[in-house]
Amino acid sequence: MEENLKQLRNIGSSKIIKIALFGPESTGKTTLAIQLAEHFKTAWVPEFARDYLQEKWDKTGQICDIDDMLPIAYGQVKLENELLSTANKFLFCDTNLLVTKVFSEVYYNFCEPKLHKVALEHEYDLFFLTDIDVPWEKDDLRDKPEGRESVFEVFKQTLIDNNKPFIKLSGDKDSRLHHAISIINDLEKAKKMEFSSLDFVQIYEHGISLENIKDQLNIFKNGISKTVLKEAAKVSNGILELTENDFHQKEAFFDANKSNFELEKFVPASGAASRMFKFLTEFLHEFDIENQSINAYINKKKDNELLLFIVGLEKFPFFKTVNTKLKEVYPNFESLGSDYKNYYFIKLLLSSDYFDYANKPKGILPFHKYRSHIVSAVEEHLYECAYYSSSNGSSHLHFTISEAHQHLFEYIVSRAKIRVEKASDTTIDISYSYQNKSTDTIAVDLNNNPFRDKNGELVFRPGGHGALIENLNKLNADIVFIKNIDNVIQNQIESITLYKKALAGILIELQQQVFNYLNQIDNSKEESFDEIMAFAKNKLNIESAQNFAKYTLENKISYLKDILDRPIRVCGMVKNEGEAGGGPFWVRDLNGTISLQIVESSQVDLTDSNQAKILADATHFNPVDLVCGIRNYKKEKFDLTQFIDHNSGFIVDKNKDGKPLKGYELPGLWNGAMAKWLTIFVEVPLMTFNPVKTVNDLLKPVHQPEYF
Fold this sequence. Notes:
Blueprint: H1 2-7, E1 17-22, H2 29-39, E2 43-45, H3 48-60, H4 69-84, E3 90-93, H5 97-108, H6 113-121, E4 126-130, H7 148-161, E5 166-169, H8 173-192, H9 197-206, H10 210-222, E6 228-232, E7 234-235, E8 238-240, H11 244-257, E9 263-268, H12 278-286, H13 294-301, H14 304-311, H15 319-329, H16 338-350, E10 366-369, E11 374-376, H17 377-388, E12 390-391, E13 394-401, H18 406-424, E14 427-434, E15 441-442, E16 460-461, H19 469-473, E17 479-483, H20 493-522, H21 529-540, H22 553-564, E18 568-575, E19 583-588, E20 594-599, H23 609-616, E21 620-621, E22 625-629, E23 650-656, E24 659-665, E25 678-683
Parallel strand pairs: 1-3, 1-4, 2-3, 4-5, 7-8, 8-25, 9-13, 9-17, 13-14, 18-25
Antiparallel strand pairs: 6-19, 10-11, 12-13, 15-16, 17-22, 18-21, 18-22, 19-20, 23-24
Helix pairs in contact: 2-8, 4-5, 5-6, 5-7, 8-9, 11-20, 15-16, 17-18, 17-20, 20-22, 21-22
């Protein structure tokens, strides 16, 4: 018995990557194995069964039966072991014992126990599951066209049930070959990075580049260089200050020119509202309604947020809806004391069985109470889009969301869109996208080794809002307005419109001048180069190159095109009133170049007293109020991924399954992801910045009805 088992064991090799072609017959396995062996100049293991069964047919006229399974298995393993010694880096196996096991079970409802045992033990670095999307070819010895789909599913499920590393190959002969070659090359890289085959399949299915993972692991190992601040950007030193009349002139200029452009509004909106209700979640977790009063809890915890919430309860836009439901759930609600009423209100508000507000997207929650209806942030953005991001009677609004929540957004839009279009006399086109899984980043443990969950799988985390540069890059607009989902205001649409249009007017003016200069550069009009350099310095805040006058004509053209032919962003900046987050600074990069950037405090070395002083000296704050030009002077779309500063990401401390880990967040959308854009900062009034970070922000006057 033991000797028989030895004959069924493949010997393996740590130096050879073994690829098994797996699936029913007539799925192109043999052709692909031969093609791969030829491409990689190595050996391939043919299917022993074909010759064995042909010989049996020729001698006896009989086709395959259950007694043939073990002889086929012995012959296949012997052939594989012999060819392993001739392989060069790779060995491609047309079939394997797992295929024989499946055929035995499918066609004879039985598998020899020793074949079953050893088939599951055989290890391959990767299985290619060949799809049945190719025409069936007649094989009278074994396979039949009937039940092809169900047999394929058995093959697939066998791989899943036995935790085998596999990737399905579909398409025609050429596409399968090219796809397989690409996968095998990546598998080799993954092995060199000490990832297992199962790790590789997980990475492949996530769509993450191995090069990106390698870069991220190096970032964890080497750390991220802190941003070097030169000085804070201020009015007349990097921040443009306009009079009210100036704003109206820029607005008028935008209105006069907007029909020439495709406009779109871009709203990052995937975040859940968990932070909005964090203090209420903690209250429910800690408070004992049977043995404690809410007042005593507030005094003990010094929880002023809870006090403000309860005092302002009836002013929240969701109060009436929640209160009505409370009376349905608790028939004796009106007779309860105030502590019980408030406790049950908060409980119902956050309960997964009822409103579950902390786990829903912030954008779909009730934000504002008007005389006739309640609106969410989504609806407020619909109004804004119609008023300032529209031309020729139409506007386009794009939300980046979580795929699981799309139905919630669509429900809100379906109820509000007609009302908004009627009020604004504008047709609104709504589109959605999700943060691409391929932008997720690998997590590591405290020793900078890939972090694994309780099932031993790699852990990937969303790459932060910087990943959305991919979504922005796919828009087909000329000019894009960007604003966060929670930064909306009530009853001030005209004022908001003025400042957003003015920013867009500034963008168009600058863009026209930049495009004009780029055309002059194309025509080698050297007499205008000094004027262009002055424009770059005075209007675009770009330092002049040393010795530019001594450059050759060719180098002058190359330099000027390099500094001007970039996406443009005009960013509104508000005066800093203690808000946490990024601000405008003059920054020195690794090459010594000075530029205007939006910098987060976490990017600054606060142990350096000089850097800390510059940070504290900031007068303005970034409210994420941007207008962007994303086409070049030839009307071609920029590839926005080419303008990212990849050295400006963030390392964050997180926790999973009770274990600490480190995560990496990509350069922020309006920080490092736009670091190499042409950048203009404009001071805008504080009233344009009204984010809802906690639910109590909804009690501020700008979020309350005028008639309160």
